[in-house]
């Protein structure tokens, strides 16, 4: 299979862990501690004969420990968020209770941020000037400074083209927590490095495949999940070491193969398409599918508008599934 080694004993352990129950990882209280991944209960649920890494999950402990301003920095009291993707950073800093308004529709906030974020007041994607003023925010966090005008508070504008780590650092700096933010990033990096050592990540080659409604892509090292695997030291097949995504076609179909393949589905329709592909003879003739070394992950978390809180979930998923003893 394109020269990819088959480390059967290590990777097959992922299937054993997919049937384990009551695995729990929670955040600690140190201000340098990143968020936890929530409580995880796995079952034997499958899609097209591939186990789900974590089909049931409780995100009650998704956010980081509450942080305080860096020395000499004044604290913020009331935060309005005009782009809900940035709630991940607020959650990771543990100051979600300071958010008084989110410019989003009800139900549109990423569920992995847990109930303390999902319960925040939403005032619509395009709130009225009256609703914006009523929030009485002293800081307005978003990607577009013009959207902050109606709220009247100090605008903290983040460049959406930055990587997720850089965005988190910019949010932390804008909210007077630059040092705390850097400590949490450093702690996460160390957690990822140690997790990689525990699961012998450097000797695992992992493939990342996303199914669309009528398409498949191989995700590169620059994808959100790809950056977490890289931080762990997980290796990628030679055909998957570019930063960008690769569209799968007849000529490169087997480039998706690896010791272990993580698959995900962008939509329900994508799940139907992906399930069909995963039952096909061509898919099953590859090494990882042939040895039942394919696992299903949550597309929204692994490839969504991720940040440090989502990174903790991906790290937990990968650590748990790469080695059942982690």
TrEMBL record:
GO terms for cellular component: outer membrane-bounded periplasmic space. Transmembrane segments: none annotated. Residues 78-326 form the Fe/B12 periplasmic-binding domain. Residues 1-27 form the signal peptide. GO terms for biological process: iron coordination entity transport. It is found in: Cell envelope. Its main location: other. Keywords: Signal, Transport. InterPro entries: ABC_transptr_periplasmic_BD, Bact_iron-sidero_bind. Pfam families: Peripla_BP_2. Belongs to the bacterial solute-binding protein 8 family. PANTHER family: IRON III DICITRATE-BINDING PERIPLASMIC PROTEIN, IRON(III) DICITRATE-BINDING PERIPLASMIC PROTEIN. This is ABC transporter substrate-binding protein. It comes from Williamsia herbipolensis.
């Amino acid at each position: 299979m394109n020269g990819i080694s088959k480390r059967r004993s290590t990777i097959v352990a992922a299937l054993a862990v997919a049937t384990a129950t009551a695995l729990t990882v929670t955040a600690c209280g140190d201000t340098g501690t990143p968020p936890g991944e929530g409580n995880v209960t796995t079952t034997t649920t499958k899609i097209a004969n591939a186990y789900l890494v974590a089909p049931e999950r409780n995100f009650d402990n998704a956010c980081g420990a509450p942080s305080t301003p860096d020395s000499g920095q004044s604290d913020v009291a009331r935060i309005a968020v005009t782009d809900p993707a940035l709630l991940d950073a607020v959650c990771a800093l543990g100051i979600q209770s300071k958010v008084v308004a989110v410019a989003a529709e009800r139900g549109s906030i990423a569920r992995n941020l847990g109930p303390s974020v999902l319960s925040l007041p939403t005032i619509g994607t395009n709130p009225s000037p009256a609703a914006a003023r009523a929030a009485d925010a002293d800081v307005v966090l978003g990607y577009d400074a013009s959207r902050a005008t109606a709220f009247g508070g100090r605008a903290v504008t983040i460049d959406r083209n930055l990587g997720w780590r850089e965005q988190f650092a910019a949010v932390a700096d804008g909210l007077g927590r630059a040092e705390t933010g850097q400590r949490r990033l450093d702690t996460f990096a160390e957690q990822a490095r140690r997790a990689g050592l525990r699961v012998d990540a450097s000797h695992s080659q992992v493939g990342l495949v996303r199914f669309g409604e009528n398409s498949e892509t191989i995700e590169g090292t620059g994808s959100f999940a790809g950056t977490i695997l890289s931080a762990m030291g997980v290796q990628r097949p030679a055909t998957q070491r570019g930063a960008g995504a690769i569209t799968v076609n007849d000529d490169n179909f087997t480039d998706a193969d690896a010791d272990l393949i993580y698959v995900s589905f962008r939509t329900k329709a994508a799940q139907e398409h992906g399930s069909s592909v995963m039952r096909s003879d061509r898919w099953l003739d590859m090494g990882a599918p042939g040895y039942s070394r394919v696992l299903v992950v949550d597309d929204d978390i692994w490839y969504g508008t991720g940040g440090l809180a989502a990174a903790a979930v991906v790290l937990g998923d990968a650590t748990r599934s790469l080695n059942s003893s982690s």
